[in-house]
Amino acid sequence: MIKKLHQMGIRSGHMYTAGAASIALSFGTWLLSKNVEQAGLDRADRWGIFIGQWAPTFIALGVALRLEETHRDLEEPEFGTFDQAETTRTRSHAGV
User: Can you tell me where the transmembrane regions are (predicted)?
Assistant: First the structure.
């Protein structure tokens, strides 16, 4: 699932942002429900807790995606391996 999310273009930063937004939305819905609805504090608490439980999931997905991003970077180095870079540098200085 993590690999599929990564292939779809979802990055760890997106999930961290969703986690922070979930925390803010949790507080916002609690405050709105408490002040606007006549159902009482119990219902406001339930709304806040329900949305607040999303944050750990988003943050955990962010960590998993960060590991996937790091793993991908290690598998496919941008400039080749160290041995290839060392050989290229040695050859380029040999003619000087």
Answer: 12-32, 47-65
Instruction: Give DSSP secondary structure letters for 11-77.
Output: -HHHHHHHHHHHHHHHHHHHHHHHHH-SS-HHHHHHHHHHHHTHHHHHHHHHHHHHHHHHHHHHHS-
Token pair, residue 13, equals: 């930063």
- CA distance linking residue 57 with residue 50, whole number of Å: 12
User: What's the CA gap between 13 and 63, in Å, rounded?
Assistant: 9
What's the N-to-C CA distance of the chain in angstroms?
A: 52
Q: Which residue has the tokens 């290839």?
A: 84
Instruction: Give the pLDDT of the chain (96 residues) as one tens digit per residue.
Output: 888 988 899 999 999 999 999 999 988 888 887 777 676 677 778 878 888 899 999 999 999 999 988 886 666 655 555 555 555 555 555 554
